[in-house]
Batch of 2 targets.
Target 1
Amino acid sequence: MCGIVAVTGYRQALPILVKGLEKLEYRGYDSAGVAVIDSNNNLICHRSEGKLKKLKNKLNKKTINGSLGIGHTRWATHGKPVLKNAHPHFDSTKQVAVVQNGIIENYLELKTKLELDGIVFNSETDTEVIPHLIQKELHNLGTLNLENSGSTLLIAVRNVISDLEGAYAIAVIWSGSPDSLIVARKQAPLIIGLGEGEFVCASDTPAITNITNTILPMEDEEMALLTPLGIEIYNSENERQYRNPISLKLSEQIIDKKQFKHYMLKEIYDQPQIAKNWIKQFLGNDLSSFTSINYSFDIGFLENIEQIQILACGTSRHAALIGSYLLEQYAGIPTTVFYASEFRYSPPPLSPNILTIGVTQSGETADTLAALNMEIKRRQSSGKESYKPNLIAITNRLDSSISRLIPNVIDISAGIEIGVAATKTFFGQLLSFYGLAITFAQLRKSKTSEEINNMISNLIKIPSLLEDLIISHNEIAEELAHNFSNIKDVIFLGRGINYPIALEGALKLKEISYIHAAGYPAGEMKHGPIALLEKKVPVISIATPGNVFEKVISNAQEAKARDSYLVGIAPECEGTEIFDYLIPLPLTDEWMYPLLTVVPMQLLSYHIAAHRGLDVDQPRNLAKSVTVE
Ligand code: AGP
């Protein structure tokens, strides 16, 4: 969580930092701050509580002459989202400034020791121990050798890092070395951008692309010294690292809201194009001669797989639940989905020939990465060949930690998602699971080639179905949002392949509208949740033709009998007249429906939140990638 941006070069740092922070605000928006070393070698800092615009107002008309600086946008972990806890944080002499992402787990122990030495803390954060410790190290190292001040700072930071526990990324500046920037990471992302005569470092690529498209992703536990003259990268053994820079893909460079009021709406509208791209990339150009799904890795290792386990959080977990439905019901392979945060501490006993799939759009979710790391380690240390880790990652970020952890990556290529509530990346994850289900159906011969061709031809129709659906459902959702302006609770029902869509619909509504919502398998409602139903609690029910259609309609009847206002997401067909309001779906194959039913869920949440005047793209308390446990 939190966004870091830092720069050293020849231009004024302040505008570069502010521009970078604008691009990183999706990572957290509890407070923001910058620190710059000015031309008189003074450390100048400005911080503000709340969103970046408050900091920008504060900075208005201010100039700081200086080309070395760090900036931060915060998602609070330790200490309330108030000014004193905003980053950067300083040592007592205000010579060292630090911004940090992640958590320093042993900060209390370190803080107590520093307090015994007489250090007075100004914040409740875990971060503040770092500048105090660095200052102490600088003092011990003797700071008078200013010719090598950058190296001195590097050594000081390295010594401090060796005492830090947790997962974090930091950027450090010191007035004693007015062009040196030190950055370091441990299980939290940092990318270095190589500009002309200047270097930037940030938590994510959007903060860098206005300066350069050439980047060096830092590996885990690396630190670097950046000056306008060059970069030195070191691993945890203090060995100098050399690697070639890479160029960012175009999709990683363009972040454009187009004509849309919010990124979320634009990202919902992006989905047909994502489907078109997926078809091209995974099914191939010549669909008449389709043989197998195209992967960027050799799928030979999947032949012996007997079971699948999927680890994910939040919306990614909902995509995994649909994936598991497809893998079991379509491809016939037993599949279990775990909350990554639970799996880490209570994994099932080891079983042989299992494929572990990690799903994370950001590729940086700490719970998912920790669960995967744990699983890889316990399988490797088992010593048994059949227990060896077989791994696939599904992510939207090829430059992320999961892509470095797992060799076999399915890139959903949805383009960077800025809206904090995931929409198009969920859709991209779903498509990846359709691909995997086809692959396993082929490997296990659980479907005939005719059945597989049928699935392919239905998938090919998705982009055009979606284009029409989004336009019509957008109008409907806007209208319905007016009717729902005062609701406080909503129940979402789905069954079979659409049950996870009910969960996702409820999550989206909670996240951006702050309305309490719960999703249930429709058949479960009578076992308890039905007690909640009354006139003021609308029920949104997904009823698509297939093996549970009549059952869902009966469950909807039960809700109607309790006076609930019934919204149906269903085709106009016999049975659906029961709904007070119908959001119509086209008729298609049952397997395809999650790719369509998710759209009205997304649009409804969007319009309800927008109608209430809420900050749709940056909902309260959330951040785009949750890099803390
Ligand atoms: C999505 O709308 C949420 N903000 C959240 O549940 C998210 O899906 C979850 O934190 C997992 O993120 P990831 O896909 O980046 O791992």
Target 2
Amino acid sequence: MPRLFGTSGVRGVINAEVTPKLASKLGLAVSRLVGGKKIAVARDTRRSGIMLLSGLLSGIMAGGSDAVNLGIVPTPVLAFLTRALGLDAGAMITASHNPPEYNGMKLFDEAGMAYGPVQQSKMEETVESGWKGVAGWNQVGGIVEADETGRYIEMICGKVQLTKNWNIVVDLGCGAACFLAPELLRLLGCHVTSLNSQPDGFFPGRTPEPSPEALAPLSMLVKAKGADIGIAYDGDADRVSFVDERGSFASFDRSLAAMASYSLRRSGGGTIVTPIDASMSMDDIAARENGKVVRTPVGDVQVARAIKERGAIFGGEPCGAWIFPEFHMCPDGILSSIMFLDAIETENVSASTFLSRVPDYPVLRSKVNCPSNDTSCIMSRLKERLAPRFREKVDVLTLDGIKVFTSDWWLLVRSSGTEPTIRITAEAKTQKKAEDLLELGLSEVSNTVREICN
Ligand code: MG
């Protein structure tokens, strides 16, 4: 059986890869995993959300667990409430930033941590074993509807106060943050203009991924309104991206490094966690701010685990998924935007100045499609041939894929955790070098795929 879990839960095209039947099997599996207790459920705004939720609920109750339905909330709110309400697991119906035809599920334990490899394997084994271990007729679980977002709002407002009269534009992308984010930002004293603020699972305003292209209307509105900053979330609001007061998109690597730099400055040093594909600007700012960088394989699950194990003060991925462990252990787009505003007002500068204080090296990303999901042969061939392609002395790291690097540049080739592709990422201190690296990576991967798959 192919692995169900990718780098961030189960995900696929609706009624092809992800079906109500699969949702019910996952519901039964999580119910059996926690031993017939209480499980939080929620969904984003996708059209297929209620259909999958119905399957998930059937499985949970068939396994003898009770479900607590939190309605449409962001993934981080589901994760936070799972712990805050003392529940035994949380299941979020979402395909995050994927297009509207996708959906899936993210799972969390009683501490609000994303399920790791051990729990994922147990879930996969149970799904594979069939419809077994169901409850007797008089042990079937029940369901309660619960609006508990007030607890999340209280938690945030109890820990952060904004003092500046922020004039902000928020692009909600018709996703899971629609109801909560404007309310919370206004409670913190912001003057909020909302864009794409109606919940709509077809995502008519923009793609659920807050990419520079998708945020062109946000940029225009920030400039037109003379706003201080523009903020956007992905479909389930565990990611954030920013547009500065001039309407310029803040590169993901740069906003991550700026936030990490501020976190270190505020704490007088400490450990920050980031995956292997994040910019070397993270190392630069850590050296400057008395910090230490721990690198992980790609995926927010890996980052969260490392933050916990290393006692880190902050962690984040260069896709806008940031974790603030003093609040909770799930990447949280809304919290990230509030912490970003807090950092900028504490430093008493504009958004563009705040961002300009960290290096912005060119990071180029591309991918090569593979005819098969099994990329192991391709990756082992690349492991032999990639490093010898360079004349200079290089180091090699195989934490996740193959990273070839020097102190001035790096090239990473790795299998995607969410689709049958090999991703290539290159960073250098000059655009030309980054382009050369990407070209070399693309050609090596394409040739290897052709050799092995033909
Ligand atoms: Mg997401």
